[in-house]
Amino acid sequence: FSPAASFGVRSSALNMAETATETKAFAKLPATVKPGVVTGKALTDLLDNAKAQGYAIPGVNIVGSNSINACMEAAAKYGGPIMVTFSKGGGQFICGKSVDNKNDQASIAGTIAGAKHVHEVAKLYGVPVVLHTDHCQKAWLPWIDGLLTASEEHFAKTGEPLFSSHMLDLSEEPLEENIAICKSYLEKFAKVGILLEFELGVTGGEEDGVDNSDVDSSRLYTQPEEVYYAYEQLSQVPGGAFTCAASFGNVHGVYAPGNVDLQPIILYNSQKYIQEKLGCEDDKPMKFVFHGGSGSSVEDIQYAIGAGVVKMNIDTDTQWAFWDGVRGYEAKYHDYLQGQIGNPEGPDKPNKKYYDPRLMLRAGEEAMAARLVKAAEDLKCVNVLN
Ligand SMILES: O=C(CO)COP(=O)(O)O
Ligand SMILES: O=C[C@H](O)COP(=O)(O)O
Ligand SMILES: [Zn+2]
Ligand SMILES: [Zn+2]
Fold this sequence. Notes:
The protein is an alpha/beta fold. Helix content is 46%, strand content 14%.
C-alpha cells in the first residue's frame, strides 16, 4: 500500500544538489527522513514507519515563534518527529491581530511567515518537522488556496512544497460533497507532494470558533462505511497521500471527568471493514489522526495507536502548559515585577532583568516543551530517531 508512490519526483539537477549538501539520516527512520521540514515521499515514509512501529507523532497548535520553538525543543529532547500545526487563527495571530484579515490575507501571510521560520531553523534542532495546517471549513478554503500557491512557488524553486500537509475539514457538508472537494484538492496537492488530512464526523467542543457542543452525539462517531467510501474515492488520485481524522467521540478542550466518551474501537472496526472490502493484507489500510488529544487517557491514546493512529493533535494542554510556565515565573519573581524600580533588595533597585519579556516567554516555552515530552511518551514517539 503506497498511495504516494510518485511523491518526491525531482529533476536530476536537484538530486545532485542534494547529494552535494548531504544531511545526515536518522538511524531508526527511513533514509528519506532528514532533519528539517519533511514533505512528500519522506512524509509518507515517516507515517508508514509510525504505523509499522506503533507510535504516533504529536501535532501541536502553535501561535508564534515561542510555541513553534517549544515544539522543536521538545522533539530534540524526546528524540522524535514533531508536527507544527497552524490554525487559520494562529496564522492570523503571527501576522498580527491589528492587520485587516480581508480575504484571509493576514491568515495566509502569517501562516507562510511561520512556515518560513521553521524552514530556516528546523535543521538546527536536528529533528524532522512536519508543517501542517489545522481545521479548514468550506468558507475558509481561500486560506488553503493562498498557502497552496506559496507551496507551488516553493516547489518550482526547490522541488518541495512549503507545507507538508493540510487538513480540510468539510464534515459540516454531506459526505459526498466533503469527499468530492477533498479529491479535487488532493489532485492539486499530489502534484507538489502535499498530504491531505480529511475529517469525517464532527469533533465536539469548539472547533476554530465553531461551537459543536450541541451537535447530535451520533455525529461524533464516524461509521466504517464512511471511512471506506472516502478511502476508495481518494485512492483514485494518482500519487495522492492522505490521513483521516475520524470521529470517535473526540472533543476539543479539557472538561471535568465523565464528559467525554471516547470509543477508539470505531477505528479498529473501520480498519477491519476496509481490509475486508479491499481484500488486502494490511490490517490497517487507513492512517488515522486523533483530534482533541488534550485530557485523553494514556489507555485510550495507546489503544488508538494500535488501531492505526499516526498523529495526535494537542492544543488545550499545551496552551495550559505555556500559561502555567508564565504563571510560575510571575509567582516566583512577583516582588520584582511590581514596578520598574524597587524590589525586596532595595527601593532603588532596577527590575529590568526580571521584566524583559524573554524571561516569562522562555518560562512558557520550557513548560510547553516539558508537556510535549510527556505527550511524546504517551504516544510512544520517544527515541525513534537513533
Ligand atoms: O484537535 C485539536 C486541534 O485540531 C486539539 O484538540 P485539544 O485542544 O483538545 O488538544
Ligand atoms: O482545534 C484546534 C483549533 O484548530 C485551534 O484553533 P484556534 O487557533 O482558532 O483556537
Ligand atoms: Zn469538523
Ligand atoms: Zn482538531
